[in-house]
Design goal:
This protein has about 675 residues and is mainly alpha-helical. The chain is built from 45 helices and no strands.
């Protein structure tokens, strides 16, 4: 050890302790008279104690026999525990005693000797805690002996990886001492203090204390690179690189707190990280990109990362041979790709091809999780999906739908759902056997996985051949069973997936009727308070109502009064009311539903729907009004609410379906007016 070498040879210190032991053995012998007096006193005391013990034993033997047996058992247990402890336990405790009572030289030797043990073992950590060794180590941080501080920090850095130790250090006030050392002029102390805080800051309370004691601004200042610094020289300076690495490591741990992220951002963290990432020093890049990955969950950080030009480096480092760095880059892209601009930038900086190549590294679950997550979010952009089509991404994704952790399968299912926007990708999924795997995953219980799988099946079902395969493997029944889930997002995703399955199935009517209680369940979900559930279920009702027998069953279950209430209750929500109007238009075909809708006051709110700026809303409203206009009383209400002036404008629309609906509605209103005029003139 270099530290011990400065004080002399280690053997000389061993001799020092040996001499200490010899002194206790070579003490002068006692005189005979003294020995005789001691022996007489010892015998008298022993005799008196034995007499008293016998008397007490005779008096209380019957009362205390059970207690004595218990005490003996406890004693034997304690002896057994002590007997089971390894020698390292006792050796460490002896060293801690020297640590507490020795001079600086003995303290330093004890610290160096402690480092010879494997401090990651529980028994070594227990030995340190049992004799208040942690308190001694923390106290050494406040001394003026730099070598003792360094040695103590090296031990604390190793043992602080244990959560119980970190908790104890937090209780002892180690955070405050470590933060003070961040301002030290000794680089070794700064590095070790930063790395120790990085370990302890995995605890929530420790992160809060670092923020309150002003530690975050000190960490950020450690990342500062002076403007005139020669970058090439900096890269060769091992101590400077280590300090930057430790500071970034500490900020990575601290960034798990939302309040800490805000404080870090106000301290100028992004500006420093954008400089560090350009150094392209691997040891620094890992904690730097890990910090970016943690912070990029925040929308403000994502915007700053885009503006700082960091996305191009994240795309570039996907080609790195360091899998830990690649994993952090992929996770950072996963978070940042929530924004449209980031998805475009990743394509422009050639980040899509490396993501596809990285899928083959299935043994590294952490990296695979990040890569598949990044692909999922990047695939939201249609242009990126076209690139993935050419790279045959879906063929590589399908095998990952089984025998992988749930977090990976969640990302894979989400990626397939996004890629399925392109018809050629659906064909790749179908030919690779992906539909079968997706249907099998519907039997799971993870809500996020079920949501993504349902989305994927819904997108694939837009192709008739895929819809047939989904029905063949019982996918529609499993999707329908998800409507019973207590999770509204699962319900809505299942309902959206059911719609194309019905729309692209030749025997859709019979398929729906074969599901016992299925239509009753659909009608009951129209009473949901969740707008996404309402929109999806109304869309499902519109598709189911295409079959007259199913529409008759829906009517018997009371679909008309429920839809009549919804058309008024959600008059201000464009997202929901378009689907409500669509469902009403489909349900008008059966029996007296038109008349009942009119009697329940549906016509007037639907006329107001025509004023919406949402194309889907006013188109669905026009279709519904066309079907309702076949009932004379409804035409009167339309005329009174000036529906004709809105319908006339729609006749000139480019959508021929909307043209026909608007023209047909106007014609029905006009026919009623002519009939009324003829009736009046006939009188």
């Amino acid at each position: 050890c270099g530290i011990i070498a400065e004080y002399g040879e280690f053997q000389s210190f061993q001799l020092y302790f040996k001499r200490f032991n010899l002194r206790t053995k070579d003490m002068p012998a006692r005189t005979d008279s003294t020995a005789q007096r001691r022996s007489v006193m010892t015998r008298s005391i022993t005799n008196s104690r034995s007499i008293s013990k016998k008397q007490k034993a005779e008096e209380s033997y019957s009362e205390t026999s059970n207690d004595d047996m218990d005490d003996d058992d406890d004693t034997r247990d304690r002896r057994k525990i002590h007997a089971d402890l390894p020698s390292e336990y006792w050796q460490i405790q002896k060293l801690i005693k020297y640590l507490k009572g020795g001079n600086p030289t003995a303290t330093l030797i004890a610290l160096c000797s402690l480092r010879d043990f494997d401090l990651s073992q529980d028994i070594c950590q227990i030995a340190i805690r049992d004799v208040d060794g942690l308190e001694a180590l923390v106290n050494l941080l406040d001394t003026t002996e730099i070598k003792c501080q360094v040695a103590s920090l090296k031990i604390l850095k190793d043992i602080s990886q244990s959560k119980p130790i970190s908790r104890s250090l937090t209780d002892l006030g180690a955070i405050q001492s470590l933060i003070r050392l961040l301002s030290s002029s000794v680089a070794d102390l700064q590095c070790l203090a930063a790395e120790t805080i990085a370990n302890i800051a995995k605890l929530t309370r420790a992160r809060r204390l670092v923020r309150k004691d002003g530690g975050i601004s000190k960490f950020v200042s450690l990342l500062n690179i002076p403007p005139n610094t020669n970058i090439d020289v900096l890269k060769e300076d091992g101590q400077a690189v280590e300090l930057l690495r430790c500071a970034a490591l500490g900020l990575c741990s601290l960034s798990k707190s939302k309040k800490n992220k805000r404080k870090m951002k106000s301290s100028g963290l992004i500006q420093h990280l954008s400089k560090l990432i350009t150094l392209e020093v691997e040891t620094i890049l890992v904690p730097v990109v890990a910090t970016l990955s943690e912070c990029s969950v925040d929308p403000e950080y994502r915007a700053a990362i885009c503006e700082g030009g960091i996305i191009q480096y994240l795309s570039k480092f996907l080609e790195s041979s360091n899998q830990e760095l690649v994993s952090h880059c992929a996770k950072a892209i996963f978070h940042c790709a929530e924004d449209d601009l980031t998805r475009t930038l990743i394509r422009q900086h050639a980040g899509l091809e490396p993501l596809v190549r990285l899928i083959k590294f299935t043994e590294n679950v952490s990296m695979l999780d990040g890569v598949t997550g990044a692909i999922w979010k990047v695939a939201i952009d249609r242009e990126n999906c076209l690139v993935f089509r050419d790279l045959k991404l879906c063929e590589s994704l399908v095998p990952l739908l089984h025998s992988q952790p749930e977090e990976v399968m969640i990302n894979v299912a989400g990626s397939i759902a996004e890629c399925a926007k392109i018809p050629e990708n659906i064909e790749q999924i179908r030919k690779a056997g992906g539909l079968t795997h997706l249907v099998n995953l519907l039997s799971g219980t993870n809500p996020t996985l079920l949501i993504n799988v349902a989305h994927a099946l819904g997108k694939c079902a837009t192709e008739p051949d895929s819809a047939t395969i989904i029905d063949k493997y019982d996918g529609v029944r499993l999707l329908w069973s998800l409507l019973k889930s207590p999770n509204p997002q699962v319900q809505s995703s299942a309902a959206w997936a059911i719609c194309p399955c019905i729309d692209n199935n030749k025997d859709a009517g019979e398929m729906v009727r074969s599901l016992v209680g299925g239509l009753e369940l659909i009608v009951s979900l129209l009473k949901s308070d969740n707008r996404e559930v309402l929109a999806s279920i109304c869309s499902a009702v519109a598709n189911i109502a295409k079959d007259e027998q199913n529409l008759a069953v829906l009517t018997d279950h009371g679909v008309v009064p429920i839809l009549s209430k919804l058309v008024v209750a959600h008059a201000a929500d464009d997202y929901v009311k378009g689907h409500i109007a669509d469902a009403i238009g489909r349900c008008c075909i059966w029996g007296n539903n038109r008349k009942e809708f009119g009697a329940r006051g549906v016509v007037k709110p639907l006329v107001r729907y025509l004023k919406s700026k949402d194309t889907f809303v006013y188109k669905a409203a026009a279709m519904a009004l066309f079907h309702l206009s076949l009932e004379p009383e409804n035409c009167v209400v339309m005329h009174e609410n000036h529906a004709k002036q809105w319908l006339v404008n729609m006749v000139g629309d480019d959508d021929w379906v909307l043209q026909e609906a608007a023209a047909g509605c106007i014609a029905n209103i006009r026919h009623l007016a002519l009939a009324n005029d003829i009736s009046k003139s006939g009188r």
